[in-house]
Amino acid sequence: MFRKFSREDIHSRSNVKSSVQRTLKTKLVSQFPKLEEVIDELVPKKSHVELIKCEDKIQLYAVDGEVCFFQKFDELIPTLKLVHKFPEAFPTVQVDRGAIKFVLSGANIMCPGLTSPGAQLPEAPGFEEDALVIVKAENKESALAIGRLLMSTEDIKSINKGHGVEMIHHLGDPLWNFSVE
Amino acid sequence: MSLRSVIYCGVCSFPPEFCEFTGKLKRCKVWLSENHPEKYQSLYGDTEVEDAAAKLAGSSIGEEREEKLEKDLLKLQSKQENREQRELAKKLSSKVIIKREARTKRKTMVAIAGLEVFEIDMKKLAKTFASKFATGCSVSKNIEKKEEIIIQGDVADEAETYIQKLLEEKGLKEVKVEQMDMKKKKKPTTTTTTPAA
């Protein structure tokens, strides 16, 4: 999604009204219920939220100068900066050490990388297809990517072939290096 | 429960655990040991040999693949270093040219070219110049299709010192900043070389 992304792709920037900010927060909490406890820390009441509209209908939301989440169509997707602050709130999968290199260069994650001994998938029933997942790595604490499941986690376990997770945002991609100023 | 604060490497901007995958590991290590010694200890604390052995044993992807991975990472690192050196050499060999051009009568204009190599935001710099010298200042393309900053008014010396200071902040003190003086032609009305303002 952010293969190519630069300052030229920004169409407009505007400040978000506090009423819109409130609905945004409720939406975020409804998507990730665990965020409720910390939502006021993530987006403080007096914070300055900015909406940055970009190419391909991507919208970024920056809280106090740091891009915290973005959306394409309807779903809100957190950026890695936010995930690092509060990783517990999001559904997580783990890849093995051999896959890290490819993930960091932006590849989709293949099933074997998710099923090998170093990797981890949630217990059954797991997550559905199209669900948003945070990708962690073996022996590493922080998340390194955010993706969307191309098949349900149960299918990944049983089929074990082909693309498992579609890459949305990873460490070192243009969005990671993007700063609002 | 509260928010976690994460350290990000000052060199490669990743969380320090992932420094090894960026190819800048050497500089990352230096940075980490200077700024967050306790984190450095926990990540790279063991001596190198022990560490590598432990990694091999603890790895789940098999020794063979692990070794290959290590090799690839080393390759990446050397590649990255070479690239950085090349870039630095390019930066050091290029120079900034400040041209003073004469317009009508006593009016002059200053054109600054060659800044794009140094990752300086031309538009922002133009804006600061405009407010600093209280003149018109803009970014435009010159004859060679390169971007340059055009300042109205005779401020070449001030601009030079400012740019030198800017480069010094970036640690590029040796970069040459050259001033050129385009002499006013005797009949300014017939000049064709000056681009339209």
Automatic annotation (TrEMBL), chain A:
GO terms for molecular function: RNA binding. Transmembrane segments: none annotated. GO terms for biological process: formation of translation preinitiation complex. InterPro entries: MCT-1/Tma20, Pre-PUA, PUA, PUA-like_sf, Uncharacterised_CHP00451. It holds the Pfam family PUA. Keywords: Cytoplasm. Gene3D superfamilies: 3.10.400.20. Belongs to the TMA20 family. PANTHER family: MALIGNANT T-CELL-AMPLIFIED SEQUENCE 1, MCT-1 PROTEIN. Involved in translation. It is found in: Cytoplasm. Its main location: cytoplasm. Residues 91-172 form the PUA domain. It comes from Lachancea quebecensis. This is Translation machinery-associated protein 20. GO terms for cellular component: cytoplasm.
TrEMBL record, chain B:
Pfam families: DENR_N, SUI1. SUPFAM superfamilies: eIF1-like (SSF55159). Keywords: Cytoplasm, Ribonucleoprotein, Ribosomal protein. It is found in: Cytoplasm. Residues 178-197 are annotated as: Disordered. One of its GO terms (biological process) is formation of translation preinitiation complex. The keyword ATP-binding does not apply. Its main location: cytoplasm. Coiled coil: none annotated. InterPro entries: DENR/SUI1_TIF (IPR050318), DENR_C (IPR046447), DENR_eukaryotes (IPR005873), DENR_N (IPR048517), SUI1 (IPR001950), SUI1_dom_sf (IPR036877). Belongs to the DENR family. PANTHER family: DENSITY-REGULATED PROTEIN, DENSITY-REGULATED PROTEIN HOMOLOG. This is Translation machinery-associated protein 22. It comes from Lachancea quebecensis.
